[in-house]
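Weekly modeling sync, notes
Attendees: AB, CL, MP (scribe)

Item 1: holo prediction request
CL wants a bound-state model with adenosine-5'-diphosphate before deciding which constructs to order. AB pointed out that an apo prediction alone won't tell us much about the pocket. Agreed to run with the ligand included and paste results into these notes for async review.

Input as submitted:
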Amino acid sequence: MIFHPGILALLLGSALTTSMLCYSAYEGVRIIRNWDIRSGSERQLELERRTYLVSTVMSYVLGFQLLSLFLFIYTADTLSPLFIGAMCAAGSLNVNGFGYSALVLKIVSCLLAGLWLVVNFTDNRAYDYPLIRKKYWLLLFITPFLIAETSVQAGYLLGLRPNIITSCCGTLFSTDAKTVMSEFLALPRLLSEAAFFLSAPITVALGLYVYLRSKGAYLFSIVSFIHFLISIGALISFISIYFYELPTHHCPFCILHPEYGYVGYPMYLAILVSAVSGLGTGIINPFRNIASLCNVIPRIQKRLALISILSNSAFVLIAGYGILFSNLSMAAY
Amino acid sequence: MGAIEKQRNILDFTLSSLGRRKGKNIALVVVYTFVIFLLASVLFFTHSLKKEAFLILQDAPEMTVQRLLAGRQDLIPTHYIDTIRQIRGVQSVAPRLWGYYYDAMSGANYTLMVNAELNDRAGEIIIGNGVSMRSMSGKRNQALRRNDIIPFKTYDGSVLTLKVRGLLPFASELVTADLILVSEADFRKLFSIANDQATDLVLNVRNAKELSTIAAKITQIHPDTRPILREEILRTYDAVFDWRGGVIFMVLSGVFFAFIILAWDKATGLSAEEKREIGILKAIGWETSDILLMKFWEGSAVSMAAFFMGIFLAYLHIFLASSILFEPVLKGWSVLYPSFRLTPYISVYHIATLFFLTVIPYTVVTIVPSWRSATIDPDSVMRM
Amino acid sequence: MIRLQNVRKVFNADKANEFVAIEGVNLSIDSHGATVLKGPSGSGKTTLLSILGCMARPTSGRIMLKEREITSLPERFLTEVRRETFGIVFQQFNLIKGITALENVMLPAYPNGEKHASLKKRAMELLDLLNLIGKAFSKVEWLSGGEAQRIAIARALINNPAIIIADEPTAHLDTRLSREFMEIMRQLKKEGKTLLIASHDPIVYDSTVIDRIVEIRDGKIVSSGDIP
Ligand SMILES: Nc1ncnc2c1ncn2[C@@H]1O[C@H](COP(=O)(O)OP(=O)(O)O)[C@@H](O)[C@H]1O
Ligand SMILES: [Mg+2]
């Protein structure tokens, strides 16, 4: 293991977050088994108090997971000089098999925690807590992801040794290499550009439709998720090169560096926020016919749609700014 | 927006409540600040050392070739240059002369290095800041100035007096503090080194990718040499400094746990007065979430105050007060270093790391006690 | 306005020290009247008052507030109901020390998200009404007993509730101040507020303000008649 303050911070943060979540899951089991809102018994009152604890814990879990996601990438970045051939996080994460899995699990757990908070927020607006069991089942579903994330991240960080030879963004994200990513990059750039410039307005338009008409939540939700994947792909395949001003440099991480004004942070944050709000619109949709929620859900969906529209637009604006004001002239390629 | 006004109202009340309970909170903030100050100091310090080392090495040649004799570094014959230059891909090879000089008077070890600019000015030297502070001429507390004369004892027993031509600029004090630049002639005279020998050889190559192939060729031609790559040194330095930082962190974890226990204790041991207040708030219409929100703002205010004060103090300590607290550690390193200054440098990454190591554990520790105090029954004040 | 049906409140259920504080209570409180809950110490007045005032949920039984069943509302919503409907005056004033009288009055409205300026204006109007304008910026620990009592009343009124609840409001007041308190209650009743007071002080239950006396003993209602 490498004794690095960033590594200690990540391990400590993850361990704390996951143990809080495990405790919440334990409370969740008790709530699923014993919840009876009609009862005035002391046990029921106590369970009701516990729901506040779990809500609080989950808000912190989401916050910490988000911070931890970025700290993870940043740490991988700072560690890159230790590995031969690594120039940024792309290389460090490739040092052992756990790096990229940990990253994906971190993103997934952020999305899941965000979705749980959307469901919780919705449920807390209804006087009879109609989703209480469902949301604690969801919590039980999320917990293994965080445990996996913590273990895989620990596997990655503890397995780091200086001087390991790795390959970095130059080869991982290039069209010559034989990786999944390079297969993707080998697709004509026009295709990914077309996909992005189609899916962005469609997502925003559907968001507006949900916002104005309170209809089409499922479609919006599915499209939002597809757009989430397309956005990440677009960022790697063609948006990033305008920021790097290098036609062959497709790195998802270098864009987080100070050389590029940390522009990657707002972009990734916008992608995550729009994914959570888009998916959130759909995840609460099945419950809109419940009596106590029928007035609540359309309002929440409206708000989520608005958040999604704003964050998608922010992403497109930043990307557009990068493309328009780049010194990279694509005409030459 | 009602939600924002509500946040503002609750935040206002929280801050005024914190003010009312200064005594209790000040003790916590002081300890919290101290913990963050210690951790931040270690982080800034090791990172700056790393940065300094990096600065030195950045100008270092891509490859250095040393000669080994019985496993120890020895002088290298300059005729090796000719054979090495023949290797394909080598751009330039140059001999270097440098070494250490122990001054019994001040008890310090200086780094002497030949500088080409002084070669036609034999008899003159340029000195670093540390050298000027601790005079070798016996005038202990007086800084050396231009045109001062310093006597050196040569290896054949005679005395060589050299004149100070100037001081080195400040850029990286850690590097230049103990440095003395001399002319080649003076260096050879001082250490009795023959003209066909050098300390080591440095070379530049045309393509960095060929470094390892060239290194292999050199050891093949001259089996008594050891080529060292800059990349390797950088990597070792990085690992060593991170490791040091990590170890100090572990040592400090005792302090840290003491703080966590204090935080837990403060959060759990609500005074009767505080309990009554929360009870009143709940009875007059505040909800559990409102109290939790208040507790959140309270924790944030305490954390932020301690966090920024701790970082600010650590900054002062490391970059302006010459890391006074780490002086004992440094003294073992070299007697010269007591008062060098590091180049100020803080990154977002440090802040984020510190946040994870301090604020998150603090927050986690206070969640359950806050929740417990927030779920007091609203009718409890009617029975107090 | 409020209807209790067969309400029961048990403390420490299923434990050795199980205690039934309220048992089989049926009670109906009408709008615009003044009701006193009368009974010896420990008879369950405070417990009943806290159930009526939505501060506690009964162990069993039903509660209706303005035709809405609120029996099993979770705390989150019960608090909202309470904040909108009830203003509460406590036995020991229960003001928060260290902050001004004005802030104390404003506190119950903070979670509503009202603009600070307009809230402050309303609070000042209330203080003016209760002749406390000069004390608005004094810390509450410097106030006299009577002033503290009136601040507590102002605080109970800030959210413009329909019902005022008071638990032994005169227990810490001398006779003069107790009468003064009842005069304020009379005024509030005239303005259309419903009053619910728990007390075993004759100044309260013998006052002409009171329309109805409900007598409790050992957690049961022994008489709930109107005053002739
Ligand atoms: N939280 C509690 N736990 C156990 N017993 C309680 C609790 N609250 C009240 N009691 C009991 O319930 C009874 C009624 O109390 P209370 O309603 O305060 O009476 P009163 O206000 O008429 O003096 C008392 O005997 C008291 O000891
Ligand atoms: Mg009582």
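Recorded for review: Chain B touches chain A through 36 residues (CB under 8 Å).
Action items: CL to compare against the apo run; MP to circulate these notes.
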